[in-house]
């Protein structure tokens, strides 16, 4: 048997590296001439772990050092990528510029809801960014930023619900703004 095969069997048998079996990026165990074994990870970034193993009678020397390159864990992502999220924020912010004059001139019923949603989202993302930037976990602890984010989500949800209620049961946001301006 080759040195690489013996080393891999020994690692699995002794469970020297618990994540050896579950590491999906590990493909081969490569033996170098100086009796170091290295797990190949392809093109992925990797973390080097040096393990001092006392391999006993399986190998000529009593102590061998094996370098195992395990792939770095993939980041857990949820939702949009930051670049997509930023692009959507910018598109809504820029689309709000012509949205207001169009809504004030033509007064379509649907524009009340579009303006309400755009204003609510713009405020949610804008002030949410302020909370993320200035309510820092290392300064205020892990609870304060989470509470502020939750509070801000509730405020934005109630604000959007208020806009929707005003649009459905009253004259609407656009006509309400026109009435305020006519005073």
UniProtKB/TrEMBL annotation:
Keywords, comma-separated and alphabetical: Electron transport, Heme, Iron, Membrane, Metal-binding, Mitochondrion, Mitochondrion inner membrane, Transit peptide, Transmembrane, Transmembrane helix, Transport, Tricarboxylic acid cycle
Transmembrane stretches, start-end: 147-169
GO biological process: mitochondrial electron transport, succinate to ubiquinone; tricarboxylic acid cycle
One Pfam family hit: CybS
Membrane-topology descriptor: Multi-pass membrane protein
Residue numbers binding heme b: 122
Residues binding a ubiquinone: 134
Cellular component GO terms, alphabetical: mitochondrial inner membrane
Subcellular location: Mitochondrion inner membrane
Molecular function GO labels: heme binding; metal ion binding; ubiquinone binding
Main function: Membrane-anchoring subunit of succinate dehydrogenase (SDH) that is involved in complex II of the mitochondrial electron transport chain and is responsible for transferring electrons from succinate to ubiquinone (coenzyme Q).
Record-stated family: Belongs to the CybS family.
Protein name listed in UniProt: Succinate dehydrogenase [ubiquinone] cytochrome b small subunit
Species: Taenia asiatica (Asian tapeworm)
